[in-house]
Amino acid sequence: MAEAPSSPSGPDLAQGVPLQDLADGAMLAGRVGDEAVLLVRQGGELYAVAAHCTHYGGPLAEGLLVEGGVRCPWHHACFDLRSGRPVRPPALNDLNRWSVEERDGRVFVGEALPEELPPRPAAAVFPESVVIIGGGAAGNAAAETLRRERYEGPITIFSADSAPPCDRPNLSKDYLAGTAQPDWIPLRPDNFYAEQRIDLRLDTRVTKIDPAKRTVTLADGSEASYGALLLATGAEPVRLQVPGADLPHVHVLRTLADCDALIAAAGSARRCVVIGASFIGLEVAASLRKRKLDVHVVAPEARPMERVLGPELGDMVKAVHEAHGVAFHLGANVTGITKDRVRLSTGEELEADLVVTGIGVRPNLALAEAAGLAVDHGVTVDAFLQTSAPGVYAAGDIARWPDPITGDDIRVEHWVLAERHGVFAARNMLGQKQPFAEAPFFWSQHYHTVINYVGHAEKWDRLEIDGDPAKHDCAVTYWRGDRKLAVATVGRDLDSLRAEVALERQAAG
Ligand SMILES: Cc1cc2nc3c(=O)[nH]c(=O)nc-3n(C[C@H](O)[C@H](O)[C@H](O)COP(=O)(O)OP(=O)(O)OC[C@H]3O[C@@H](n4cnc5c(N)ncnc54)[C@H](O)[C@@H]3O)c2cc1C
Ligand code: FES
Fold first, then answer.
1. CA distance 21 to 15
2. Could you tell me if the CB of 414 is within 6 A of ligand 1?
3. pLDDT for 487
4. Which of 1, 38, 54, 55 to mutate to test the pocket of ligand 2 (most atoms within 8 A of CB)?
5. Are 67 and 25 in contact (CB under 8 A)?
6. Distance 328 CA to ligand 2 centre (A)
7. Which pLDDT score is estimated for 1?
8. What distance lies between CA 335 and its chain's CA centroid?
9. Rounded to an integer, what distance in angstroms lies between the CA atom of residue 281 and that of residue 252?
10. Would the CB of 138 count as within 6 Å of ligand 1?
11. Closest ligand to 64 CA?
12. How confident is the model at residue 428 (pLDDT cuts 50, 70, 90)?
């Protein structure tokens, strides 16, 4: 994880600040001893919490106050101001808190407060046990939430991956570029799962679910029973189907092992061809440029990411990469790969001693289909993320849910969304009946340019641009009729947070 600045600045809040300097709805970043502290006045209450987000250290003073919470400007985590608890991923840890007192027209921040556990739930019927299939974003968030909500029963995560839950988005960014410490990558330290009494079974593939018997079968033939089940099997990279696509220097990127293999190969490579101008493909291109490889990107479309972001942002992304030395070969498909060449449909041949394909992913639906669950381009879930089988939930890349913002059933492949699904599925397993109505959010980073995107616009009939994409300062709004579907921003983090709130309020009516 990135770290918060080490020496905090701003007023010494222990010495007090005039109350009149802090309007209702205002935030003030200051310090107490060596700690950066955020003082907040909202709805007549005063709060003092850590000034930096527990995800990557985002400056919360530049975020947004929304109904008793503060949202982080970088990746939209939200913390409850009273308890410091993260109420929306991607943050997983609480903010530290301090006592606050008002005396003689001044506000003083006092001693650090202990962590506050949520109240033990009133007598409710909890599942006897919870089994989670998938140790990724959604599975991990669900397991953590169950414990946070003080569920005491057994929790088992079966994960086909050999690595514990990891910060997957980092695999195409800092970790691949060589600028992240390896210890940023696991979501939790080694002993976390044992301490939380979460039985994390790595390298363990589930091969069958029997919703009638409430059991799952593992690859070794053994069975495990469940009271409630979460399916969070994520997605697999689509494999290129051309001659040579199975050569050893052709890579995909999904897991930590994939990334380590790619880093090892990049160490001795000179020229990489990235196939696919997807988010992952282009982030890989940026990271490999940081490793000083010569990078060429091949894709069939006229502009990278045009289908998702529109032509203007597509042009911006292309220009950013070209300025960093990436060569594009657009309007072209790959027809074959040899050990030192990639052949294109245009007849062109590109030298390459490393090839990475980023041509999309396919959700892992086989278990759900074989179990007879309702599946329609994703596992069909209701607003509570429950599948067609009682006690079986689905979350993350595989789940298709009724999204109140677009009015459509949608399936989305985003990190933060998968974690939030995991949180809601866990709460609903515990009988909390919370419909999922949060706006999907993703970010994508290309060198120093970050695109934040809230909502979901699979298809739009109009887009509106405020600002100038070429100057990396804009907000692009995607409309269908008079319904606002999504907003993408560059260099406008606060606008992105405001758009998130507006989309969620629009859906709530
Ligand atoms: C390199 C990379 C960069 C990304 N960057 C971003 C980004 O910047 N922003 C963003 O929003 N999104 C990003 N994403 C997408 C994001 O990581 C995914 O949307 C998210 O991980 C989905 O979470 P999930 O829990 O549904 O699935 P995953 O995180 O993929 O987890 C699925 C888990 O299920 C396990 N599994 C599958 N089948 C079985 C089985 N039969 N039995 C047992 N276990 C099984 C897998 O081993 C894995 O542990 C990125 C993805 C990649 C690969
Ligand atoms: S740094 Fe705050 S959400 Fe990522």
1. 14
2. yes
3. 98
4. 55
5. no
6. 32
7. 45
8. 33
9. 10
10. yes
11. 2
12. very high
Q: Is the dihedral of CA 141, 143, 148, 149 positive or negative?
A: positive
Phi/psi at 312 (5° precision): -70, -45
Given a contact cutoff of 8 angstroms between Cβ atoms, the answer to whether 190 and 348 are in contact is no
The residue assigned the tokens 């998130």 is 500
Rounded to whole angstroms, how far apart are CA atoms 131 and 129? 7
Pocket test for ligand 1, best of 413, 438, 442, 454 (most atoms within 8 A of CB): 413
Helix (H) or strand (E) holding 283: helix 279-290
**Chain mean pLDDT for the chain:** 95
What residue has token string 């701003």?
Answer: 10
Residues in the chain: 509
Count H helices, E strands: the chain?
10, 36
Beta-carbon-side half-sphere exposure of residue 176 (alpha carbons within 13 Å): 34
Tokens representing residue 19 in the block: 């109350």
Torsion on CA atoms 159, 164, 169, 170, rounded to nearest 10: -160
Say how far apart CA 319 and CA 334 lie, in whole Å.
23
* 35, amino acid identity: E
CB 355 within 8 A of CB 337: yes
Centre of ligand 1 to C-alpha 168, Å, is 7
DSSP code for 322: H
Tokens linked to 508? 């709530």
pLDDT class for 2, splitting at 50, 70, 90? very low
- Tell me the torsion sign for CA atoms 304, 312, 59, 447: positive
27 has pLDDT over 50: yes
How many whole angstroms from its chain centre is CA 143? Answer: 16
> What is the DSSP track for 449-478?
EEEEEEE--SS-SEEEEEEEGGGTEEEEEE
Pocket perturbation via mutation, ligand 1, pick of 193, 397, 443 by most ligand atoms within 8 A of CB: 397
Query: What does DSSP assign to residue 151?
Result: -
| Residue 4, pLDDT above cutoff 60 | no
- For residue 193, the one-letter residue type is Y
User: Could you identify the residue written with the tokens 């007090």?
Assistant: 16
Q: Tell me the C-alpha distance between 200 and 346, whole Å.
A: 49
Strand, coil or helix: 208 = strand
Q: Residue 239: helix, strand or coil by DSSP?
A: coil
Q: Residue 237 corresponds to which amino acid?
A: P
The answer to whether the beta carbons of residues 218 and 206 sit under 8 Å apart is yes
pLDDT (tens digit per residue) in 398-417: 999 999 999 999 999 999 99
Mean pLDDT of 144-168: 97
